[in-house]
Design brief:
The complex is a heterodimer. By secondary structure, chain A is of the alpha/beta class. Chain A is built from 21 helices and 23 strands. Chain A is globular, with a radius of gyration of 25 Å. Chain A starts with 5 loop residues before the first strand and ends with a strand. By secondary structure, chain B is α+β, with helices and mostly antiparallel strands. Chain B folds into two domains: 77 residues, Alpha-Beta Plaits; 69 residues, ACT-like. Chain A, domain 2 (Alpha-Beta Plaits, 2-Layer Sandwich). Chain B contains four helices and nine strands; from the N terminus they run βαββαββαββαββ. Classes of the chains: A alpha/beta, B alpha+beta. Chains A and B meet through β6 of A and α1 and α2 of B. The structure holds thiamine diphosphate and magnesium ion. The site of thiamine diphosphate has 19 residues of chain A, from α16 and α19. Chain B: This is Acetolactate synthase small subunit. Chain B: Pathway: Amino-acid biosynthesis; L-valine biosynthesis; L-valine from pyruvate: step 1/4; Amino-acid biosynthesis; L-isoleucine biosynthesis; L-isoleucine from 2-oxobutanoate: step 1/4.
Chain lengths: 574, 165
């Protein structure tokens, strides 16, 4: 009996099917037309045609952040591939699993500066977890299986697969073999924490009088929020989340003391500064958290749990490092607490909470409403109320992102989707589209600004084609607000190129793309018009909210200061 | 402090460039780097001489280990080890005096003259970096160095300890 033979292009699609992929986000071009033909000839996988390859990467990324499933991107060689670079870097910085399939010129032309040839493996090397070149078409299925395995295990991240044209064309065929249960001798990520380190960690936790649990995106990625909540309740410890970790515990949980870091709450940063033990879980002591590392929590014993050994003791020395998957390690910590029959030190805890409540009473996350001008914070609060706190909130980058993080308490992980590590303007809309594809019946909000939205505005067209009725809430301050805030605070108010002139009429713009546009001008119409926007379920609504352009994001860490040195209002330090 | 790192990795296209890219991307120092396949052609072995304090070295080792192609990395300088480098050097040897001197110094350093031309001798010397530096110094006092090439160091642990899969 002769075996059935397949082209490389067919193998790509067959491999993706075998890996249970539902969507490919992409854009066609010469080098990948054979793959597009193979996609055309099947109906297991849906291809979503974006309007710019960068948006394909962010859309795949948003889909992944909302669901936990690996996102797949397909782009042609040359400009298609280079357009993906920002999206790959965005995923890399936030440890988002992604597989990017890129076309390449035929093997015999590589190196000749052929039409649409770029070395995408080379271009993306510093921003991928790994990458593959295909040399033999029979290797394609297993390379794709490996790409998925690498992307989605250990510390997740993007993987690029380069597919030369001669591997895909109909003239070349081969047998299809795929090993979905991947094993690699050079890659075996750690799973459980070392038992000795677990014992040490628990011993330190038990003796703590001022413990803070500090958690990051790792909790979200590992779907560890239930265990985390259990641990926090068991210890009755205060818990703070990074920007990436919001939703890791419910934003309304009594032990939650808010986000920490540059625009975190005063109580979160104060608690860190005064802690005697810090239990860091799936967080990486980013500079937007620590502020000046030399002044960072000098009196704390630091227990650092992370899947990636390079994150441990990179910027801040960890006294007790634990390498392992954060959900597994939390379970190990709880088992050890059981084993030693742990009961909390009530007196120490009471004192600690009393102190924290005093910091809390200063209400650092607050603003002064103005009767007339709409405050951006107000918009986020209204959004929270109208959506019952249950929406997927996908953010762009700027002041609006910080206001969303501060004023929309997230009940669950994966509800808050933002580019924390790279801070990519233009991420919000495509990411929201990815979340909406996964959860068509949920409210999906793109919170954005007049600057960011214009970085991927073309995707309004994709939204129409695939019926993706996200609600875009643009906090329009007619400026690059976050830049302007820094210029106000550091550059004596010299607003160099942070003012936006000639903004489009966003309502008409939305309408011209076939969507609904609503503008909100006055504080007294905010509630009604926003409610109306969210009541339109079948069409995309672009809400252009003209907000107070002079508003700053507070609190804000004082530059080069300690973790809890903060501006709480214009000119006021805590 | 100077360290010698030995890395065992998959002999795949691009695996060397990942190592080199990592060092430049993270501003780690490379003093020398050598690479070749091992007795098992599916594996490559890289030796990197680098300088850095304990903290930097810890990051280098962790970051290299994190690369998917890397199977093992070890810091040879942590224990007893042997370090060798090969030097090929062309020296001006025009007259009897300089020829004798070149021969004499080469013998002292247990090198060998491997080629002679009308006016130049080519000499081969092996040893650790210090020895090769001393040889080059000694020669430059006696004659003119026309060209010199060093292989970069390779190293191996003493005793039973071995870097293998
Ligand atoms: C691609 C990209 N370019 C530049 C920046 C720097 N940057 C950070 S915030 C910001 C302003 C964003 O303006 P807007 O989207 O209107 O948000 P606002 O701060 O006004 O709420 C800029 C330019 C960035 N983060 N990303
Ligand atoms: Mg703006």
């Amino acid at each position: 009996m002769t075996k059935e033979l397949y082209t490389g292009a067919e193998m790509v699609v067959k491999a993706l099917s075998a890996l249970k992929v539902k969507y490919i986000f992409g854009y066609p071009g010469g080098s990948v037309l054979d793959i597009y033909d193979a996609i055309f000839n099947q109906n297991e996988i849906e291809h979503i045609l974006v309007r710019h390859e960068q948006a394909a990467t962010h859309m795949a990324d948003g889909y992944t952040r909302a669901t936990g499933e690996v996102g797949v991107v397909l782009a042609t060689s040359g400009p298609g591939a280079t357009n993906c670079v920002t999206g790959i870097a965005t995923a890399y910085m936030d440890s988002i699993p992604m597989v990017v399939l890129s076309g390449q010129v035929a093997t015999n032309m590589i190196g000749d500066d052929a039409f649409q040839e770029t070395d995408i493996v080379g271009c993306s090397r510093p921003i991928v977890k790994h990458s593959f070149n295909c040399r033999k078409l029979e290797d394609i299925p297993n390379i794709i299986a490996k790409a998925f395995y690498i992307a989605n295990t250990g510390r997740p991240g993007p993987v690029v697969v380069e597919l030369p044209k001669d591997m895909l064309i109909p003239q070349n065929k081969g047998e299809f073999h795929i090993e979905t249960d991947v094993k690699m001798r050079s890659y075996n990520p750690t799973v459980k924490g070392h038992p000795k380190q677990i014992k040490k960690a628990v011993k330190t936790i038990v003796q703590a009088e001022r413990l803070v649990v500090y958690t990051g995106g790792g909790i979200v990625l590992a779907d560890a929020s239930e265990q985390l909540t259990e641990l926090v309740e068991r210890l009755n410890a205060p818990i703070t989340n990074t920007l990436m970790g919001l939703g890791g515990i419910s934003g309304t949980h009594p032990n939650f003391i808010g986000m920490l870091g540059m625009h975190g709450s005063l109580e979160a940063n104060r608690s860190m500064a005064n802690a005697d033990v810090i239990l860091a879980l799936g967080a990486r002591f980013d500079d937007r958290v620590t502020n000046n590392v030399k002044k960072f929590c000098p009196n704390a014993t630091i227990i650092h749990v992370d899947i990636d050994p390079t994150s441990i003791s990179k910027t801040i020395n960890a006294h007790i490092p634990v390498v392992g998957l954060v959900d597994k390690v939390i379970q190990q910590l709880m088992d050890e607490l059981d084993a030693i029959d742990f009961t909390p030190n009530k007196e120490a805890l009471d004192n600690w909470w009393q102190q924290i409540d005093q910091w809390r009473s200063l209400k650092s996350i607050s603003y002064e409403a103005d009767g007339d001008k709409i405050k951006p914070q107000q918009v986020v609060e209204a959004m929270y109320e109208i959506t019952n706190g249950e929406a997927y909130v996908c953010s762009d980058v700027g002041q609006h992102q910080m206001f969303a993080a501060q004023y929309y308490p997230f009940a669950k992980p994966r509800q808050w989707i933002n580019s924390g590590g790279l801070g990519t303007m233009g991420f919000g809309l495509p990411a929201a589209m990815g979340a909406k594809i996964a959860f068509p019946d949920s409210h999906v909000i793109c919170i954005t600004g007049d600057g960011s939205i214009q970085m991927n505005i073309q995707e309004l067209s994709t939204c129409l084609q695939y019926n993706l009725p996200v609600v875009i809430v643009s906090l329009n301050n007619r400026s690059l607000g976050m830049v302007r805030q820094w210029q106000d605070m550091i550059y004596d108010g010299r607003h160099s190129s942070s003012y936006m002139e000639s903004l489009p009429d966003f309502v008409k713009l939305a309408e011209s793309y076939g969507h609904v546009g609503i503008q909100i001008n006055h504080a007294d119409e905010l509630q009604d018009k926003l409610t109306e926007a969210f009541s339109i379920k079948k069409r995309l609504v672009f809400v252009d909210v003209l907000v107070d352009e002079t508003e700053h994001v507070y609190p804000m860490q004082v530059r080069h200061g300690a973790v809890d040195e903060m501006w709480t209002r214009k000119g006021v330090k805590a | 402090m100077r360290r010698i790192l030995a890395i065992l990795l998959e002999n795949e296209p691009g695996s060397l460039s990942r190592i080199v890219g990592l060092f430049s991307q993270r501003a780690f120092n490379i003093e020398s780097l050598t690479v070749a396949p091992t007795e098992d052609p599916s594996l490559s072995r890289i030796t990197i001489a680098t300088v850095g304090d304990d903290r930097v070295l810890e990051q280098i080792i962790k970051q290299v280990n994190k690369l998917i192609d890397v199977i093992k990395i070890t810091d040879l300088t942590e224990r007893k080890h042997v370090e060798r480098e090969l030097l090929l050097i062309k020296l001006l040897a025009m007259n009897d005096k300089s020829r004798t001197e070149v021969k004499r110094i080469t013998d002292i350093f247990r090198g060998s003259i491997i080629d002679i031309g009308k006016q130049v001798y080519t000499v081969q010397v092996t040893g650790d970096a210090d020895k090769l530096n001393a040889f080059i110094d000694a020669m430059s006092n006696e004659t003119e160095i026309i060209e010199a090439v060093r292989s970069g160091c390779v190293g191996i642990a003493r005793g039973e300890k071995a870097l293998r899969i």
